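Researcher: Batch entry, complex prediction.
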Amino acid sequence: GIQVEQSPPDLILQEGANSTLRCNFSDSVNNLQWFHQNPWGQLINLFYIPSGTKQNGRLSATTVATERYSLLYISSSQTTDSGVYFCAVDPYTGANSKLTFGKGITLSVRP
Amino acid sequence: KAGVTQTPRYLIKTRGQQVTLSCSPISGHRSVSWYQQTPGQGLQFLFEYFSETQRNKGNFPGRFSGRQFSNSRSEMNVSTLELGDSALYLCASSLGLTTYEQYFGPGTRLTVT
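Model: Structure tokens for the complex:
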């Protein structure tokens, strides 16, 4: 099956700093999503981005499908950005959907 | 629009028992997927239902089963619980046709003692 690798596994930032989180995947994808898992376990949708670039406030994401990677940018980080960030992909097209998740990146933003 | 809801939020069961978890998708979403999250294995796909039919299944034993009702609500059942079934069970819904963006519920945290 498809492999998803996220890097770095852990990231510690000072409040106000910028960061880049990377997701590499081993096959073509039909779906790629970035999530932030809150302390209670819920996965919060950040981006649905199988290709191209999107921005939402301080967050932006870019997926280069031909080179099989995606980047999540966090600018002017805040303590509330702390948590685990997951990249998930689905390589299939058509009548099914099955996300394969990376192991996640644990981000700690210090005041 | 209301999000994905899951019940119960927390559950404690004894080894050997069975458990049923429930998921109500976002209104209009016809696809429901289930995932298991554990510290050791991370997030793993269990199965997906669309219009009451299982469309895809992950690599889990037959003790894990599910179903979907005509209103798109879904249940998953785990029989003969083992200690290793302790996990956060997440449900996600999507439109399931032309777009596959998935939206997750808050999860059910199952503890097996």
